[in-house]
Amino acid sequence: MAGKLSKWTLFLANTLIPVAVLLFCSGYFPYKPILPGAARQPEFEKAPAVFDKAILMVVDALRSLIRNGAAIPFTAHASSPTVTMPRVKAITTGSVPSFSDVVLNIAESESMSTLVHQDTIITQLKSGLSGKLLMYGDDTWLNLFPGTFDRYDGTSSFFVSDFTEVDNNVTRHISPELARDDWSVMVLHYLGLDHIGHKAGPKSSHMIPKQKEMDGIVEEIYNAMLSETHLESTLLILCGDHGMNEAGNHGGSSAGETSPALAFISPKLKIHSENSQLATLDSPMETEDEFQYYRTVEQSDITPTLAGLLGVPIPLNNLGVFIPEFLGLWEKESDRMSIILENVAQTLNVVKMAFPRFLSDPERSIARCNQDIDSTFDKLECDWLAASLSITNGLDNEASHAAFQKAQYRFLHEAQSVMSGAASSYKLSMLYSGSFIAALACIMSAIVAYRTLPRSQTSVSSTLFLLTTATLHGAMMFASSFVEEEQQFWYWIATSWVVYIHLRSARGCKVSAMSLKRTIYTIFFATIGRIVRRWNQTGQKFAGEPDIVHFLASSQPRLLWVFILLTYMANCRGLIRSTPFGNKLSLSNALWTVLSVVVSTAALVFKLSFTAADAPEILDPFMLKATEPEFRTTLVIQARLAFLGIAMIVAIFVFFNVKSRGSHDVRRKCLLHEALTLFLITQSRATNIPLFLLFRAQAWILELVDMNSIETTINLTLMQHVAFFAFGGSNALSSVDLSTAYNGISDYNVLVVGLLTFISNWAGPIWWIRDDESNGSAIIQHLVGSAIRNGGLHHAQNSFVRVDGIFSEVLV
Question: Record keywords: Calcium included (predicted)?
Answer without folding.
Answer: no
